[in-house]
Amino acid sequence: MVETGYECYPVQYLKMVGPRRFALLKKLGIKTVKDLLYHFPREYRERTVKPSSACAHGEQATLQGRVLGVSELNPRPGLWVTRVQIQEPGGYFIAVWFNQRYIKKMLASGSRIQVTGKIERRFGEVQLLVTDYELLDGETRAPQSGLIPVYPLTEQLSQRLMRSLVSLALDEWLPHIHDFLPPEIRQKFSLPDLASALRQIHFPAVEKEAIRARKRFIFEELFLLQLLLALRRRQNTRRMKPHRYHDRRNLVESFLSSLPFTLTDAQQQAWEEIKADMDAPWPMNRLLQGDVGAGKTVVSTLALLRAVGSGLQGALMVPTEILAEQHYLTLSRDLAPLGIEVGLLSGSMKKKEREKILSGLASGEIPLVVGTQALIQEKVQFKALALVVIDEQHRFGVRQRAKLQYKGHCPDVLVMTATPIPRTLALTLYGDLEVSTISQLPPGRQPVQTYVLPSSYLPRVYGLVQREVEKGGQAYVVCPLVEESEKIDVRAAVELVEELSRGPLAGCRIGLLHGRLKPGEKEEVMEAFRTGQIQVLVTTTVVEVGVDVPTATVMVILDADRFGLAQLHQLRGRVGRGKARSYCILISDSNTEEARFRLQAMTSTTDGFALAEKDLQLRGPGEFAGTRQSGLPEFKVADLIRDWRALQLAREEAVALIKKDPELKAPEHRLLAREMRIRFGEKAGYLDIG
Length: 690
Ligand code: ADP
Ligand code: MG
What we know:
Elements: H1 19-27, H2 33-37, E1 43-47, E2 60-76, E3 79-88, E4 91-98, H3 102-106, E5 112-122, E6 125-135, E7 146-150, H4 159-173, H5 183-188, H6 194-202, H7 207-236, H8 251-258, H9 265-279, E8 285-290, H10 296-309, E9 313-317, H11 321-335, E10 342-345, H12 351-363, E11 368-371, E12 385-390, H13 398-405, E13 412-417, H14 423-429, E14 434-438, E15 449-453, H15 458-470, E16 474-478, H16 486-502, E17 510-513, H17 519-530, E18 536-539, E19 552-557, H18 565-572, E20 583-587, H19 593-604, H20 608-623, H21 644-660, H22 670-685
Parallel strand pairs: 4-6, 8-13, 8-14, 9-11, 9-12, 10-11, 12-13, 15-20, 16-18, 16-19, 17-18, 19-20
Antiparallel strand pairs: 1-7, 2-3, 2-5, 3-4, 5-6
The chain binds adenosine-5'-diphosphate and magnesium ion.
């Protein structure tokens, strides 16, 4: 029993658990004694046992005593009253049940009982209308007074049974449970040891004990996860990559001097970090984050050029075809003077074009390729893939990231996201990545002026668009999301273009962009907008990410309340990319509180990180920016918003511990290694620990 441990001991081996109860427990996810003990109360009820003489009329109270006798009354049809006379030191009181005639059979005279309910003083007699009772003889061992745990349960399992089970399990198993948290860490944060914490979270003597115990379990949960992530990061450094960089052609320098600007300090710093990773013998795994327009693309281009200059290959993977085409166009244009050929690979290419690119990648003739998910298909072979840059990482799942990684021989991976992620989420979601942050926008940017206006203001808004266009600026008008259906969205967009060119924006050159256009057509529209042939671009949300036309100065979003915060921020990020003052007009007639909160958040700040925090508050970690499918772990006790401080501490401790004992091989970490394997199972299986 001691050998196998409570995590393997099936709960049905406990006394009191037969097949029926086991089935019910399984519904709660409880299969082993450990599961049972880690099934924490959701709250506690205060129960202080008093003598009945100390109770006032109307009070909720808990009384104890010995059963003297039971009588039944049937004052009117359908009502049965069971009156139990109970003796206590110095007197007696009456416990009353309504319509629960089975009680009579359960209460032999002389048995000890505890009852909880409302006190009624009548005719010199104390009555208690029972809501909860407990027999004090027999198999019950759970404490009957003080703070009583209340568990999350399914039907048919009673609180009473659960308490007894937990109590039994605690008595049998606590002596055999050894703490896996290293004592120094426990002391540092004054956390109770595992056995005490388990007892105290179920049956605290005082509230403080329950709080302290819970604190331990929160820390434990966060710490073990951070340990897993730290081990993964560390594991990564143990694979050797076959390639080394020597930018013999000095491409990076040439490119930098061709730019019309110099890097900001924040960009420079990020570039240094990336360079250092590229120089390491193991593959880079880095997240480059920065607000919309912070200039991540330039930095990633430097990294790609360094690969190309070293005679290796680089790939840039983006979530949409429009983005792929945009990056392809700008890269081809910017890199042509350096004599670098860029390839484009997307799902909708003609077969012949595609074959050409594929063979160019396989032969190494094409050193640099931009593409959508098409890049991670089986058929794509590279000659010497050294670096993969993934833009707008939040759109890709962790699995896709892994898939691309195995294309080459341990390529360096740089992921970028323009959806700023609250630090706490980044630490868990991207916890296996190193992080560089570009926290500063290029100089000269003015914050985008943001307004929330009802649709009755639209004529004036289009007036603004007209004026901006006359000054040489350009505008986006984002159509409302009508339905999930793209077809309906497209029709609405087409109608909007007609309406605008007939009336409010007559005389402007209006273009239309939506997801149903053929790739060639999209490209044409974007190019026309970029060069100013199109002055107003009516669009569905396909422009959301990454599109870069610095001369655009107005973003009008219709029915803005239908969009999430992250999306609104992304859309707004399409303007304010040049030196001119820019505007973002959010049109909304919605009065719901949530919509107002979101739109107000947009006007209160242009800082993507601040907005991300608000979004997290609003939606919770699960829904945040589509993180659900990207593998955010489910927490049992921890809450990423409430416990962000604990998360940071847990991470620091995990990092420090792995630094000291990278494989958890030290004898004092043996239990920790074991716990990791048990908790993370397969995931920890390929970690070389313990
Ligand atoms: P994002 O971080 O959103 O990907 P981009 O890389 O697209 O941002 O950059 C936004 C715009 O800022 C681009 O037009 C780019 O040329 C410009 N830019 C980037 N870095 C600088 C800089 N250091 N100084 C001035 N402009 C810059
Ligand atoms: Mg970008």
